[in-house]
Structure formats: C-alpha cells, structure tokens
Amino acid sequence: MTGNDSPVLRVAGRPVARYVTRPELPYRLSPRPCLHPVTTLAGTAVTEFSPADHLHHLGVGVAVPDVEGHNFWGGRTYVRGRGPTELDNHGTQRHTAFQLRDPDGFVEELRWVAGGAELLRERRTVAATELTATAWALDFTFSLTNVTPDPLTFGSPATNGRPGAAYGGFFWRARKESTAPRVFTADREGEREVHGRGADWLALSGETWSLVFAGATGRTRRDPWFVRTEEYPGVGSSLAHDDRVALAPGDTLVRRIVTVVADGRLDADGAAALVRKAVSP
Questions:
Q1: Cα(156)–Cα(241) distance, rounded to whole angstroms?
Q2: Rounded Cα–Cα distance for residues 113 and 124 (Å)
Q3: Which label site among 206, 214, 218, 255 has the fewest CB atoms less than 10 Å from its CB?
Q4: E-strand spans in the chain?
Q5: pLDDT for position 191
Q6: Given CA atoms 63, 69, 74, 77 in this order, what sign does their dihedral have?
Q7: Averaged confidence pLDDT in the chain
Q8: In this structure, are residues 64 and 2 in contact, taking their beta carbons and an 8 Å threshold?
Q9: How many CA atoms lie within 13 A of 193 on its CB side?
C-alpha cells in the first residue's frame, strides 16, 4: 500500500491515523482514499487494510456497492436472481485536492468516476479531537453531489434482493483478533440484536480497545447500522437499507459519523458519556 501526499492526523501531538489518498490497488477492489492505520492514543491499531478475508475492505472510508449499477465497494456485485457475480462495473474515487489541511484534520475534494464518466463530486471533512487521556474522536462528514444530467440512485445488496446485506456508505473495517469483539448499543447487545437497527450510538469492543459510532445529524441517525462481528469485525451506516436512495441532478446527500476511539473495554455508561462529549448538539 502506497500513497502520495498522505496526511497523518495527530491528537495531542501523537499520530492516530494516516490518510491514504491514492492507494495502489487492482481495479476490481474499487480504489478509493481511506484512513489506515487508525490507532488508539496508546498506539493500538483498530483498522485493517485489504485483509485476506475481504480484500476490498479498506480501513475507514466511504464505499457504496451500487451507484446506478456501478460498484464503488469492490469485489463481486450482488445481482438479483444470480447472487454475487464478478462484473466489470467497478468505479474509483479520485482525490482531487485538499481545500484545507491541518495536523488534526482536512477538507478534501474527490471525484467518483465509473464507465469513463464522473458521477459524483464529493467534499469530505475529517477532524480528530482529543476527548480524554485515553480516548479521541474521529469526525467524518461526506457530501455527495450528483454532477450528471440525470438522477442517480444508490443501492445495496439488500435493495437488490439479498436480505440483511444493506452495506454501503460510511464503513469501518476493524481489527480482527482471536475472538470476536463485543457489540452493543444503549439497550441491545450482540450482532443479531443490533444489526439492521437504528441507534443513537453503537459500540464495538475488542481485547484492549473500543470504538463507539454515532450519527451526528438527525438524517444520519435514521440510517440503520450494518454490523459484522463473527465473520469479520466491521461497522457501517447503511445508506440504502430498505429502498434505493435517489439523488437528483445537482442535489447533494450529506452524512456525518463521529467515532470515539478509546483504549480499554468500555461499558454502556462509558460509551454514552464519551459520545456526549464527542458529538456537539
């Protein structure tokens, strides 16, 4: 994995994430900018990049498996009536420029290109903030604007006929360990109980680390969570859960996720307290 012009985010002077702007990857993995590695303040890695189980999982970023039939997720495409199918339909997210770049964050412009045409223009805003001596927050906003003359629709394997597979949007591929991480919300616990449901926040806790994800706008909080712990550890905010999402020409779709990155294993009270500190009203 290499990338030019890749900023390192710092919290209290310590590096906590590298942003890879131009990963050198095969076309079928839908190359796209991503954050990796992301670490706790103590230096524990909490992301994976192109792991053997899912080569197209790239740290932290935005990935959508179906933008008007184009695959910006990577790997196979779920086709109704056929299942996962290898198609020549992959798109790429291309870094254009940093509009702002500081030690604790940046504002980036990107182009989503597929089939020789630009479909979407994205503005991505990422900021890292210290919360406590053992926790920091990653604030991630993406704004997608339809730059084509026609409506675009966003889908997922779930909207294309595969129940429970509404992945696509913000996605965090977490560190895989010898045992599956614990996953919980304020009132539910376990993958089966939290997957596909909405919650103000959702926590994933590994051997020595915790991640707490929170939608930071009312619209983002309406998107259910996509959760995997047994097969692999990953959490996403489902952009197209039940139905395809339409975006008219010139319109912009915005989502904002704040993730608490903490050393140690948080309980529900600790997770909720850090989310309150991380997400401004």
A1: 7
A2: 16
A3: 218
A4: 8-11, 14-20, 34-38, 60-67, 70-72, 77-79, 83-85, 92-102, 105-114, 117-132, 135-146, 152-155, 169-173, 182-184, 201-205, 209-215, 225-228, 234-237, 245-247, 252-263
A5: 98
A6: positive
A7: 96
A8: no
A9: 11
Confidence category of residue 89, pLDDT binned at 50, 70, 90: very high
Q: 163 preceded by cis ω (within 30°)?
A: no
Residue 155 in tokens: 């889908």
Tokens of 259: 């993730």
Residue with tokens 């020549």: 88
Contacts of 263 (CB under 8 A, 6+ apart): 40, 41, 42, 44, 134, 135, 208, 209, 210
- Cα dihedral 158→162→164→167 (10° resolution): -50
Picking from 90, 108, 255, 260, the residue whose alpha carbon sits closest to that of residue 170 is: 255
Instruction: Write the DSSP string, 182-208.
Output: EEE-SS-BSHHHHTT---SEEEEE-SS
Taking residue 52's Cβ as centre, other Cβ atoms within 10 Å add up to 7
